[in-house]
């Protein structure tokens, strides 16, 4: 199956999607419980937690896009 060139895009897409699904399904409940704890302390703490979580998710998404788009240009000597 791995030698069929036309299927590689779908195999890698499926594998990457499953990896993200498993990682996010484990991470989201933890993020929710952290937000609930922050809400007990007040809205300022909750806003800080929300900002950090959103920044982390956006930075991770941008990093994956960057490496997917420009990974072939990265050279280590």
Automatic annotation (TrEMBL):
One GO BP: intracellular monoatomic cation homeostasis
Entry keyword annotation includes Membrane: yes
Keyword line: Membrane, Transmembrane, Transmembrane helix
Transmembrane segments: 7-24, 44-68
GO MF entries: monoatomic cation:bicarbonate symporter activity; zinc ion transmembrane transporter activity
One of the record's GO cellular component terms: plasma membrane
Domain of life: Eukaryota
PANTHER family per UniProt: SOLUTE CARRIER FAMILY 39 (PTHR12191), ZINC TRANSPORTER FOI (PTHR12191:SF37)
Designated name of the protein: MFS transporter
Species whose genome carries this gene: Brugia timori
